[in-house]
Each structure stands twice: as structure tokens, then as C-alpha cells.
Design goal:
238 residues; alpha/beta; Rossmann fold; three-stranded antiparallel β-sheet; 8 helices; 11 strands; 27% strand
Length: 238
Amino acid sequence: METFKYLLLVIAALSFFQCKGQTNEKDENYTYQNGSFDGIGKFYKGREIAHVMGFQGIGWLERPEREKEENTSRLIKNMDIQPGNTIADIGAGSGYHVFKMAPLAENGLIYAVDIQPEMLQAIEKRKKAAEQENIRLIQGSEKSTKLPENSVDKILMVDVYHEFSYPVEMLESMHAALKKDGKIYLIEYKGEDDSIPIKKLHKMTVAQAVKEFEANGFRLMENIDNLPWQHCMIFIKK
């Protein structure tokens, strides 16, 4: 646990120094005010947006304890991945989940989407070593996934949505990319549980997630409550 607490401090520091920074622009979707140490001072529907974790946090993403702490194998089972599925991992990071999904969607395609080129380089290196041909890399932006329209069956976001600087624009982009009967799997640390050793802004409650997604054309289909620390919320188009 001491190692885990240390890693949390490391992640907090990396997040602080790698953040995109607060912008002075104003628009109808967001409000700006003095924020917390872990946030960017930009708010959406009452929630302060958290700093982005920098690529220096790859070691945290690939930590050996992750399976035990998050039961990532069960998460993958929750997704019911079929051989022909096209799946996008938004905020794919080092590709931790990408390389778990790719063999299951053997006749399909996994889009690994991330805003940081260093993360994508790490995935590309591992992709070549594994000779995993059904992975396609996309460098997204703060406002777009850059995914083709009507192209994906499932979207996975693991502990990343709360860091989006432009959640409205990103949800709009995902809505366009998702097929009519597609699903979004939103994985976030449980904001309702103070005992989970994750900083407050890096958690989300179900109520907050529903508020934000419903405002952007989605509805909650199910919250699979079988992960140790995280919600597994499934959203579909209204």
C-alpha cells in the first residue's frame, strides 16, 4: 500500500506538470473559476476537470498490481467482445487494455486513440513486437477522437473522461463515431466511495456521469457493479 500511495503522489506531480493549462476563453458550455490543485479551473455541470496525466505515467498504467486492484480481466469480460467488433479505446495510454482486446476482436479492429504522441509511440512499439495487426493508432485532439463516423461498435474509456478539457465536444465526436446500436463503456473510480485511494477529481459518481452524458445524447443502459474500485457504466444513444 505504501508503494501505491507513492505512485499516487508521482501521478499527481506528473499530472500537474503535463497539464494543458487553464484557458481564458469563455463559452456557453463551461465555467471558469479558481480551481483546486488537481484541477484546471474549468468546470462542466458543476464538476471541475482534472489535469491530464502525462506520458511519464506509463509505469503507473502498466503496474503489476493493476489486475488485482482493478480486476481488468473482469472488465474485459463485461464488454462481451465479439470476433468482428470494431472497438475504440479513447485515451488508450500505453495500450494496456488495447492488447487485451485485440486478440478477442481477431476479425475486427481496435482503434487506439490518444492525444499524446509518446503514448502512441509506446503502443506502436509493442504492436510491432507482438505482430498484432488489428490495431490502428489515431492521435486525437482535445475536441475530437478523429474516428470515422458510424464506425465503431464499442468505445472504452478507462479513468480518462474526467480529464477531457472539452467533454461536450468529445462526446459529440463519440456520438458521431458510434454505430446506431453501439455502446460506450465508461470506467471511472467510484466518486461515492471515499475509501478508494484516488484523488477526488480523478473519480466520478454515477449521478454526475449520467448528468453529463444525458445532456449530450446518451442514456445509461446499465452500471455493472462488479469491479473493486470502479464503475462500469454502459451508455447508449438516446
